[in-house]
Amino acid sequence: MKKDNQSMRYWAMTLLFAVTAFGCQASPVVAGPVDLTYAAEKAVPAVVHIKYVQNSKITTVEVEDPFGGFFSDPFGFFGNPGNGQKQQRKVQTPKREASGSGVIISADGFIVTNNHVVEGADELTVTLNDNREFSARIIGTDKTSDLALIKVDGKNLPFLVVGDSEKLKIGEWVIAVGNPFNLNSTVTAGIVSAKARSLYANGVESFIQTDAAINQGNSGGALVNTQGELVGINAMLYSQTGSYSGYGFAIPTTIMNKVVSDLKQYGTVQRAVLAISGMDAHRYIDNQKANGEEVDLGINEGVYVQKVEENGAGAEAGLQEGDVVTAIDGKKVTKMAELQEILANKRPGDKVKVTYLHKKAKKEKTVTLKNMQGTTDVVKTADLDILGANFREITEDQKKQLGITYGLEVIKIGKGKLQEEGVAKGFIIQKVNDEPMKTVDDIQKVVKDASTGKDPVLIIQGIYPTGKKKYFAVPLGE
Fold first, then answer.
1. Is residue 158 within 8 Å of 43, Cβ to Cβ?
2. Distance between the two ends of the chain, CA-based, in angstroms?
3. Which residues of 334-351 are buried (b: 16+ CB within 10 A; e: fewer)?
4. What is the model's pTM?
């Protein structure tokens, strides 16, 4: 009887444990209210207001004579018959002012913001939450990711610790901090609505989508997790009205960290590419179905390859049109934004393992990534010094004599790229890479863009004082 009682107690305890365990598994977990005050206390002092100023400038524009020149010289007595030709006029552009936000990421004054917040600025003024003001200088910009790094001279400034956006989860609470409509230090809250979102606005993008309110002026501000860590730079809003209507988009810190590191070290981003173009596999399948065609790639996720550039890393991996990239270094890739985010953390010269499907068969190949120029060299931004020449805008007399409306005259030539290719003093440059050269700023910009682009070469069109036209190809590489 004693043994039976012990046995009954054993089974009763076992049954009680089973019921308790079953009850724990079946009961829903109820989350308490989320306290965002700690995150706000950390973020607000580190998010700054950026005032952008572009000074008034004198520029030359072409205008169509609405009267065909009739009232000025109808019969061409002065060599200017009224035939509706375009006229050159000098106009003064208005002074432009705008504002945005930025995030201090170090105590010595490095600030991350959007490229579109600072691009073209003549003056940048940074105002902290405690109303201290600083003049800022641009360290570097990256239009491809819409990020910029600026610097103020300060010490012991409040800054945000950079967190890992990779660890963000859908549904996680975040706050957006910035200066919408010039309302300083505004905090809004929401959740992470999606990750690796593409809007086809930038060359490289893998946005964090949030329903925290983001408006004009929030650009460059901080997206912060509940631990008070920076996880994204607010960049865009999706709206049909121009103001908040549901979703904002932030650039993840996984992309930001690499851009900031490169801008500090090299002045320009060292971007590694697979040298392919394509789209989300599911998007390609949907497009084919919309055209009445059935397609079976063997998978519905990944990056569908539409084009492979010769001598690139993709070609080296054996990729062909119609293949589907499914992983990089073993990390699953379900869409183009995820592939871009992975590659955004690589540099030319890095080796990666590419996994893909070719005619539904799985293949893997380890390749060396290259830059857009097809090498593993460090890409540096060039300036006018590389040309070894001085320029000036042509005079009105030169315009009349040569029958042209704009151009830059080479007034001095020395050791540099122009001399190497035979460009002589007195030559008038009219276009470079199909861009009209009206001011020295124009040629400075085209040199900078070409030096970091896919083809680092200047195609120069111009005219000699004798009227003879000439073309030059000027490589900017070594």
1. no
2. 98
3. bbbbbbbbbbbebbbebe
4. 0.80
Catalytic site includes residue 193: no
Report whether 236 contacts 216 (CB < 8 A). no
pLDDT digits (tens, 9 = 90+) for 403-425: 999 999 999 999 999 999 999 99
Looking up tokens 């019921």, which residue turns up?
A: 19
Cβ atoms of 447 and 456 closer than 8 Å: no
* Amino acid at site 46: A
Write down the catalytic residue from 101, 185, 193, 219. 219
| Residue of 377, 372, 381 whose CA lies nearest to 448 | 381
Band (pLDDT 50/70/90 cuts) for residue 87 is low
For 426-475, write each residue's pLDDT tens digit. 999 999 999 999 999 899 999 999 998 888 999 999 999 999 999 999 99
Catalytic residue among 116, 185, 193, 206: 116
Q: Is the pLDDT of residue 113 over 60?
A: yes
Say whether 245 is catalytic: no
Among 97, 150, 149, 101, CA closest to 128: 101
Question: What string of DSSP letters covers 278-322?
Answer: EEEHHHHHHHHHHTT-----S-SSSEEEEEE-TTSHHHHTT--TT
Q: Which residue out of 101, 145, 146, 442 is catalytically annotated?
A: 146
Q: How confident is the model at residue 12 (pLDDT cuts 50, 70, 90)?
A: very low
| Residue 4: pLDDT over 50 | no
Residues whose CB is less than 8 angstroms from the CB of residue 269 and which lie 6 or more positions away in sequence, other chains included: 140, 142, 144, 145, 258, 259, 262, 263
63 exposure class (CB count in 10 Å sphere: 0-12, 13-18, 19+): exposed
* Mean pLDDT across the chain: 87
Pick from 349, 309, 379, 341: which is nearest to 203 by CA? 341
- CA distances 345 to 165, 273, 305, Å, are 13, 11, 21
Whether the CB-CB separation of 385 and 416 falls below 8 Å is answered with yes
Is residue 146 annotated as part of the catalytic site, yes or no? Answer: yes
pLDDT at 333 (0 to 100): 97
What gap in Å lies between CA 389 and CA 409, rounded to an integer? 10
Question: What is the C-alpha to C-alpha distance for residues 114 and 108, in angstroms, rounded to an integer?
Answer: 20
